[in-house]
């Protein structure tokens, strides 16, 4: 994508880069003020002392390469034009990435084609036909100062994977479109079968696909989803072009694919959609919606809401518009017409690697998706820009002879916005090889929409993530670790206040304002991005990285280069920090003597999951003591292995064959959490510890938890036993690894 010819109005700033010169005195002052960043780490998880010193030197050279100017340059290229999945521009960007990676020194660069069931609009319209006539614009108006908002290639409103059809029917306001909302409507004597429902985003948050499925199950003819200013507009603060929040005309596009059932290509569930692959009939695909769907701006939703009759909506259902919201009846009638091109089309995944110098068949996989609903200023192009600076830096190191011990694979995914498509197909295609070779996957979707860092990790890698943040400087002047800790503490205090005011119940992990290293990283991992296939299907440990802040233009045309330069990250400092952090984590996993998995931490986390499941429930019909006992044994085994590994590393050297045995064994632990039969009702999702609700929200112990919540006690007992057996298997594995490490270390010391 680098050598692309940009539109004339996007070229101007590249020739205006400013160089800032800093005096030697000021540099010395910086070094004295922030010694943690200037001094080498004396120890790094998974490294011998000498290897840690060498790793610190490599990381210092790596961190010096990414620059804000280059981040901005890349971001401008990727946001120059709309590039939805399957579009010519998105495919052109795939070729650009491949060309750049080859020039940077990445090896085995290839563009892989997947023929998938995709989604594009032909025609969409919405009219209110009674009691007055109103034709929705379904467009976003240009804003002052943002030339990209005038781009003629910006699409009108559409929802990916919507069904085609046409209907004229009464309109009903159904709040957030969750099951409990329809239950309230029923209590008011309002049925939605055959009608059109109007729902809003993010109150409380639920994935639009779940809203669509719920409406479909209720028998609605169509669903309209709008952005209320209470959630992401003027009620939050100044709107574009004066602030980061969504203006009157902003439209949150998005797919409604039921990828919480089966992600990826709907017609090849569980296997890769390579050219010529077997495909199931569309009628049998569980992830394809059968309902029409359309997103709206609040500008287009307001006339509909203002004319509705029926009972007054509850106070919690009232929104940010200066009108009273009603539930509706027969007064407002709308005509919806949608024509979609839902058909098989090619998506392209770009893959490149830096082959490991010593352990080429052990892989660290990194990824970001390329496709965007419009320009993708934050989602995903901030992450794509950070990825390009990451690969430039890694390539420069490799060219200078600093090649990682293990292989680093980098992928640019396609079709994430449609159904997590490209990553899922790639993961399914190489599942067997990944289970043999892959150490971990590190995902960056949105690199930044603000200054607040959020790090996700399976619990075995959470300590490594926390440790790495000590070595990086946040633009605030603090270490990234301190900045992260402060922002998480603030968020948890705010969440606790909200809980106290509203009486709502929040995760204990969210409201515990006592932030420690053990609870700093988010170990509750849902779905909604490209990590899903690697964790839930392949069985790989995953990490996810993101900086965020006030962001009211998600999936709209206003999420663009202008927005990022005025509100998200004006100096591209957080883009640069993301490239640095992403690379440091990849290098530590690639170069570690012993992979830095902490299974004692993992066990503690699993215990917390079980205790949270039990809390406040009548569990008389399910005895989870055997599971808790198995967790205790796994934790004890993990502590013993941690201690043995620490002693072996402190000795200064580890036999390469022994290290390979230990590392391959520890890589198996995550695979052992897979249940070949999958979650009951959703067999594609195989992980026993991590899953996602239909809303995309995290769901711990998914098979067991869903059974308990349904009071399906026979299934719950079965799922509890499966979990206990997996814990016992991993305990035996970790104990065997500890014995091997201890015996070999003793023999070496004789």
What percent of the residues sit in helical stretches (DSSP H or I)?
40-55%
- How many strand segments? 16
End-to-end separation: 58 Å
Task: Give unreliable regions as ranges.
Answer: 1-39
The total count of helices amounts to: 26
Mean pLDDT: 92
Main sheet summary: 12 strands, mixed
What is the radius of gyration computed over CA atoms, rounded to a whole number of angstroms?
26 Å
User: How large is the share of residues in beta strands?
Assistant: 15-25%
Rough outline: globular
Structural class: alpha/beta
Task: Characterise the protein shown here.
The strands form three sheets. Strands 1, 2, 4, 5, 6, 8, 9, 10, 11, 12, 13 and 14 form a twelve-stranded mixed beta sheet that branches. The chain has a two-stranded parallel ribbon with strand order 3-7. A hairpin with a 5-residue loop joins strand 15 and strand 16. It starts with 7 loop residues before the first helix and ends with a helix. The chain is globular and about 85 Å long. It has 26 helices and 16 strands. Helices cover 41% and strands 16% of the residues. Mean pLDDT is 92; it is low at 1-39. By secondary structure, the chain is α/β, with parallel strands linked by helices.
């Amino acid at each position: 994508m680098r050598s692309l010819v940009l539109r004339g109005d996007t070229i101007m700033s590249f020739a205006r880069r400013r160089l800032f010169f800093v005096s030697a005195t000021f540099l010395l002052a910086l070094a004295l003020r922030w010694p943690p960043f200037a001094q080498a780490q004396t120890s790094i998880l998974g490294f011998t002392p000498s290897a840690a010193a060498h790793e610190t030197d490599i990381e210092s050279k790596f961190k010096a390469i990414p620059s804000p100017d280059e981040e901005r340059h890349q971001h401008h290229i990727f946001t120059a034009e709309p590039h939805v999945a399957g579009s010519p521009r998105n495919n052109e960007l795939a070729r650009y990435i491949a060309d750049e990676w080859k020039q940077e020194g990445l090896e085995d660069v290839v563009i892989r084609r997947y023929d998938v069931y995709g989604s594009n609009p032909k025609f969409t319209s919405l009219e209110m036909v009674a009691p007055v006539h109103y034709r929705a614009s379904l467009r976003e108006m240009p804003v002052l100062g943002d030339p990209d908002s005038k781009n003629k290639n910006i699409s009108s409103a559409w929802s990916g994977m919507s069904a085609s059809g046409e209907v004229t029917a009464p309109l009903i306001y159904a709040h957030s479109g969750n099951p409990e909302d329809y239950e309230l409507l029923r209590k008011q004597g309002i049925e939605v079968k055959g009608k059109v429902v109007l729902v809003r985003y993010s109150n409380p948050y639920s994935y639009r696909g779940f809203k669509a499925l719920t409406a479909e199950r209720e028998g609605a003819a169509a669903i309209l989803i709008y952005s209320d200013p209470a959630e992401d507009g003027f009620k939050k603060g100044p709107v574009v072009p004066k602030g980061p929040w969504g203006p009157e005309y902003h439209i949150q596009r998005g797919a409604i694919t039921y990828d919480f059932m089966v992600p990826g290509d709907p017609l090849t569930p569980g296997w890769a959609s390579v050219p010529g692959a077997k495909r199931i009939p569309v009628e049998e695909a569980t992830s394809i919606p059968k309902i029409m769907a359309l997103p709206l701006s609040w500008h287009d939703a307001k006339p509909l809401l203002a004319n509705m009759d029926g009972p007054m909506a509850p106070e919690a259902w009232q929104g940010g518009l200066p009108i009273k919201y009603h539930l509706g009846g027969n007064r407002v009638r709308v005509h919806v017409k949608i024509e979609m091109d839902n058909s098989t089309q090619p998506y392209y995944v770009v893959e490149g690697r830096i082959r490991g110098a010593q352990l080429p068949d052990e892989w660290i996989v990194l990824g970001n998706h390329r496709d965007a609903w419009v320009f993708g200023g934050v989602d995903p192009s901030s992450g794509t820009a950070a990825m390009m600076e990451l690969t430039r830096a890694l390539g420069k190191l490799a060219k200078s002879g600093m090649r990682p011990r293990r292989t680093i694979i980098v992928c640019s995914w396609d079709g994430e916005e449609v159904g997590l498509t490209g990553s899922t197909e790639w993961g399914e295609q190489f599942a067997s090889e990944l289970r043999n070779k892959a150490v971990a996957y590190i995902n960056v979707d949105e690199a930044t929409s603000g200054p607040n860092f959020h790090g996700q990790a399976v619990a075995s890698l959470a300590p490594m993530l926390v440790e790495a943040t000590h070595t990086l400087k946040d633009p605030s002047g603090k270490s990234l670790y301190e900045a992260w800790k402060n922002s998480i503490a603030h968020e948890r205090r705010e969440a606790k206040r909200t809980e106290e005011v509203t009486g709502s119940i929040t995760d204990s992990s969210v409201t515990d304002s006592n932030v420690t290293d053990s609870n700093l990283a988010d170990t509750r991992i849902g779905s909604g991005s490209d990590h899903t296939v690697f964790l839930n299907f392949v069985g790989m440990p995953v990490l996810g990285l993101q900086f965020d802040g006030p962001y009211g233009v998600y999936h709209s045309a206003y999420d663009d280069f202008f927005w990022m330069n005025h509100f998200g990250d004006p100096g591209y400092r957080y883009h640069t920090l993301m490239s640095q952090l992403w690379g440091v984590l990849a290098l530590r996993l690639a170069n570690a003597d012993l992979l830095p998995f902490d299974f004692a931490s993992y066990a503690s986390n699993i215990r917390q999951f079980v205790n949270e499941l039990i809390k406040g429930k009548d569990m008389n019909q399910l005895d989870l003591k055997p599971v808790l006992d198995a967790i205790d044994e796994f934790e004890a085994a993990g502590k013993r292995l941690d201690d043995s590994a620490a002693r072996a590393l402190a000795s200064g050297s580890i036999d390469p064959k022994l290290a390979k045995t230990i590392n391959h064994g520890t890589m198996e632990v995550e695979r052992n959490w897979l249940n070949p039969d999958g979650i009951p009702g959703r067999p594609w999702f195989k992980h026993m510890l991590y899953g996602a609700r239909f809303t995309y929200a995290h769901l711990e112990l998914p098979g067991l938890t869903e059974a308990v919540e349904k009071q399906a006690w026979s299934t719950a007992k079965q799922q509890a036993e499966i979990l206990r057996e997996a814990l016992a298997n991993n305990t035996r594995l970790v104990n065997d690894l500890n014995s091997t490490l201890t015996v070999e270390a003793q023999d070496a010391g004789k």
